[in-house]
């Protein structure tokens, strides 16, 4: 029995030791340090002050300066609409008609009321003349004559009122036809035949045939820039997408909204383009050219990345050959370059692969291969592009 007990105890102890070996091995593996980031080759640019015009662009379109929503002055059922979207209309042209049966009946009732008031007035007028003769003969008193005079004047007033109401009803019956006031083009259709519309409900929208405006929206923080550019000759210009010349044309700021749009929170601006034959709805680009600056910092698009929700660049420290992020503010664009603030001339910025670098990472400058300088051996040149692990997403471990 003691011998069997020792054997079983030893086997259990051995099994526990064997089970614990993988755990110890895993713990030992977890304590290994991560390999350091490899030194990547990066393209850099030493900053210098450059000349820039600080140009901004705004999406715009061509609209009519006066655009009217036409509607009926009375309510009723829409019987027909004689124009469609894009129809060119002339002054006096019929656009739509309402069912005028009720209006015609009301006009007939008003005419009957005029006739009744006229008959009553004529009857009281004849009575008043007879009472004048009776008063002269002394058969009635002056008070009775005054009452007859007042009754005649009241009948006369009722007759005038009935005539005025008849004229109103006649106009109401004419209001059942919607007529264009000016020449223009239909830009919107808001009602279809069969609808019952109230007085003032828009039926069609007509853009008047007249001056055109370049309409665009301006963010709140750029309002001072737009006002300053408008006061400077050549500060605002427009480029029409359909223009084959692709040459900006000068425009004049005519109107700038005093309050922001409740949805977009932008301010509507209208500019005038003189001496140009433009069509309604054309797409355009408004160009805002700021004052010329000789101390601007320009960077290629690839140099600016988003780091922690902000625009930033990677600065290279030439002594330690490490990179650190630097937040910048993009204030404009000129061609394929961005104009930024927050940097100074003399700084060295990574222009390619900044989005895959980490703060403090060591890098090497990449220089494209070329013929060796005089007095140097061919092995002194930088490695070829095919042998250089550039800073890209595919080379990250």
Automatic annotation (TrEMBL):
Family matches, as InterPro entries: RND_pump_MFP
GO CC, alphabetical: efflux pump complex
Segments traversing the membrane: none
Signal peptide positions on this chain: none
GO MF entry, a single one: efflux transmembrane transporter activity
Domain of life: Bacteria
Location of region: Disordered: 361-397
Low complexity compositional bias, start-end: 373-397
PANTHER family: MULTIDRUG RESISTANCE PROTEIN MDTA, RESISTANCE-NODULATION-CELL DIVISION (RND) EFFLUX MEMBRANE FUSION PROTEIN-RELATED
Family to which the UniProt record says this protein belongs: Belongs to the membrane fusion protein (MFP) (TC 8.A.1) family.
Name used for this protein in its record: RND family efflux transporter MFP subunit
Lineage of source species: Bacteria, Pseudomonadati, Pseudomonadota, Betaproteobacteria, Burkholderiales
């Amino acid at each position: 029995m003691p011998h069997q007990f020792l054997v079983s105890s030893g086997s259990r102890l051995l099994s526990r030791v064997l089970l614990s070996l993988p755990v110890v091995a895993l713990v030992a593996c977890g304590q290994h340090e991560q390999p350091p980031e490899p030194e990547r080759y990066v393209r850099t640019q030493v900053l210098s002050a450059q000349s820039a015009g600080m140009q901004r662009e705004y999406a715009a379109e061509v609209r009519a300066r006066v655009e009217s929503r036409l509607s009926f002055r009375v309510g009723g059922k829409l019987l027909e609409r004689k124009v469609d979207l894009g129809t060119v209309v002339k002054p006096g042209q019929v656009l739509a008609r309402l069912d005028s049966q009720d209006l015609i009946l009301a006009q007939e009732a008003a005419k009957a009321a005029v006739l009744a008031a006229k008959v009553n007035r004529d009857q009281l007028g004849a009575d008043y003349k007879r009472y004048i003769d009776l008063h002269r003969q002394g058969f009635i008193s002056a008070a009775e004559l005054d009452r007859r005079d007042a009754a005649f004047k009241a009948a006369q007033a009722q007759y005038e009122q009935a005539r005025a109401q008849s004229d109103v009803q006649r106009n109401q019956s004419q209001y059942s036809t919607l007529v264009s006031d000016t020449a223009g083009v239909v830009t919107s259709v808001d009602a279809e035949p069969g609808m019952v519309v109230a007085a003032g409900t828009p039926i069609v929208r007509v853009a008047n045939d007249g001056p055109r405006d370049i309409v665009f929206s301006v963010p709140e923080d750029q309002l001072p820039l737009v006002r300053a550019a408008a006061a400077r000759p050549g500060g605002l210009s427009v480029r029409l997408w359909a223009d084959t010349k692709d040459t900006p044309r000068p425009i004049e700021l005519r109107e700038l909204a005093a309050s922001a749009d409740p949805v977009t929170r932008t301010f509507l601006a209208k500019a005038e383009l003189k001496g140009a034959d433009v069509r309604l709805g054309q797409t355009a680009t408004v160009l805002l050219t700021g004052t010329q600056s000789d101390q601007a910092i320009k960077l290629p698009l690839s140099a600016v990345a988003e780091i922690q929700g902000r625009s930033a660049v990677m600065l290279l420290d030439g002594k330690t050959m490490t990179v650190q992020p630097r937040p910048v503010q993009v204030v404009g664009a000129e061609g394929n370059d961005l104009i930024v603030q927050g940097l100074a001339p003399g700084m060295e910025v990574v222009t390619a692969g900044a989005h895959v670098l980490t703060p403090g990472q060591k890098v090497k400058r990449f220089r494209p291969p070329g013929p060796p300088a005089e007095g140097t051996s061919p092995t002194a040149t930088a490695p070829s592009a095919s042998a250089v692990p550039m800073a890209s997403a595919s080379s990250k471990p």
